[in-house]
Design brief:
One of its GO terms (cellular component) is cytosol. This protein has 464 residues and is an alpha/beta fold. 23% of the residues lie in helices and 25% in strands. It contains 10 helices and 22 strands. It has a 9-stranded mixed sheet with strand order 6-5-7-8-4-9-10-11-12, with helices on both faces. Strands 13-14-16-15 form a 4-stranded mixed sheet. A 4-stranded mixed sheet has the order 17-20-22-21. The chain is globular, with a radius of gyration of 27 Å. The protein starts with 8 loop residues before the first strand and ends with a helix.
Length: 464
């Protein structure tokens, strides 16, 4: 009979088991998550015990104590769904130096007007945080600051301060003497997070945990961490730009398709209610190789500009460089331009970029990328009052995109007078009177509907 294989190691991320230690999990491909599993113990029989509160009909549960409280930052409240909920645990992740601590320090100062706030820092000293607070104007009487890396000491501060809002910066720096491993490890993060969640739920303390991210942009630590918390936020932005964006990927109390925009400066961080102007270049004369599009970040339309530069290549392999766009998607658009629109691209160096450091990942920017490249290649500028929205297919067709009316309304509000969109993007009831063949009117804009990329490139350089 075959000898049974004894399982001695288990992945802390996904639970994959193996008989020998390996550096990389064979299931989820995560590095450094496989550790000793210990002997398999039989399931224990648990007897009935005392309850914290009797079960009640769901209609008798009082929800007034769990209503959200505004943070004082409208853009953050938009993403959270109205504000911070008592007892909620929020995990905010982002790259180092992106501005997480600055944002949360200002949120702490604004929330201190409603009750005591405890800010626990494990990465900096109290003096360093005080200097930042002086710079951004976050000095208030009911904001308490503690520099701790031990979970027991952190809980002692919670006992003495009794805050309504607790901020831990960051969860990877807090360790517990009751758990094995160094702070930041899988076991330590799981133990610390479980204790903080227990305290938050028992005392209705809103808790915000700051998390590190890996090189791939995912939250560091066990995947279980994201399942335990109530809200997961990502703080994004180019460190060479002042624009910062925050989005929710999990939210038990609100939507997950909202986006908050902020402007980070030396004196603090402020919300941007209308950030579209940051993604446009103001110029007196039109320049070949530029095209404006409207992208949807959640439910918010953002007007952004795509720039392209096409030049003769003197290298055996022409260069292709992108910034703020998906390089694979741009390469596909270039192939469609060459094959379907009969434009020679194989001997050209092509550079495509966005303005203002914004990253456009939506497929609706395909048409703007194609028109910007076509304009730079032919040295023909597009009208500065024209926008283009549409997804480009491999067969050369221009496909419809969701939210076309919302995109066009935003463009009309900003003063654009014409647009190129896929055919059928507008409902018949929303169209204005017919002006000419292939064009309709929408909120004062001349909207040209096209079927193919070749048709779009033909009408784009003649549209007023």
């Amino acid at each position: 009979m075959a000898k049974a294989v004894k399982t001695a190691y288990r992945c802390g991320e996904c639970g994959w088991q193996t008989a020998k230690w390996v550096g990389r999990c064979g299931e989820c491909q995560a590095w450094g998550t496989v550790g000793e599993a210990g002997g398999a113990a039989p399931p224990r029989v648990v007897s009935a015990g005392p309850v914290s509160a009797p079960a009640r009909p769901i209609g008798e549960v009082d929800v007034r104590s769990s209503s959200s409280r505004p943070t004082g930052m409208d853009e953050l409240d938009r993403v959270l769904g109205g504000g911070l909920v008592p007892g909620a645990v929020v995990l905010m992740a982002g790259e180092p130096g992106i501005g997480k601590s600055t944002l949360l320090l200002e949120v702490a100062a604004l929330s201190a007007g409603q009750g005591a706030v405890l800010y626990v820092t494990g990465e900096e000293s109290a003096e360093q945080v005080r200097l930042r607070a002086d710079r951004v104007g976050a000095i208030t009487e009911r904001l308490y600051l503690a520099a701790e890396t031990d979970l027991g000491a952190l809980l002692s501060h919670v006992e003495s301060v009794r805050p309504r809002l607790l901020i831990v910066d960051s969860i990877q720096t807090i360790g517990s003497a009751e758990a094995d491993g160094a702070p930041g490890g899988v076991t330590q993060i799981r133990e610390v997070t479980a204790n903080l969640i227990r305290i938050a739920k028992e005392r209705a303390i809103t808790t915000v945990l700051v998390g590190h991210v890996t090189k791939e942009g995912a939250i560091a630590g066990p995947r279980l961490l994201e399942h335990l918390v109530d809200v997961v936020l990502y703080f994004e932005g180019d460190r060479h730009s002042r624009l910062r964006m925050i989005r929710a990927v999990k939210n038990r109390y609100g939507p997950t398709d909202e986006l908050g925009c902020f402007d980070l400066s030396e004196v603090g961080i402020v919300g941007l209610a209308d950030p579209s102007g940051l993604f446009l270049t103001r110029r007196e004369e039109p320049v070949p190789g530029t095209c404006v599009t409207v992208t949807l970040e959640g439910r918010r339309p953002l007007v952004a500009e795509v720039q392209a530069l096409v030049g003769q290549s003197f290298l055996p392999s022409p260069r292709r460089a992108t910034s703020g766009l998906d390089s694979t998607r741009v390469a596909m658009v270039l192939a469609v331009l060459q094959q379907r629109a009969r434009m020679k691209m194989h001997e050209k160096d092509i550079y495509v970029s966005t303005v203002g450091g914004v990253r456009l990942t939506e497929t609706s920017v395909d048409l703007a990328v194609a028109l910007a490249v076509a304009g730079s290649s032919s040295e023909q500028p597009l009208s500065p009052t024209l926008i283009a929205v549409g997804e480009v297919g491999l067969a050369g067709e221009v496909r419809a995109v969701p939210g076309a009316q919302r995109r066009l309304s935003e463009a009309a509000r900003l003063g654009f007078r014409s647009a190129i969109v896929p055919r059928g993007a507008l409902e018949l009831g929303k169209r204005g009177p017919l002006r000419e063949l292939g064009a309709v009117e929408f909120e004062g804009m001349k909207v040209i509907e096209v079927d193919t990329l070749a048709e779009a490139t033909r009408v784009a350089f003649t549209a007023p």
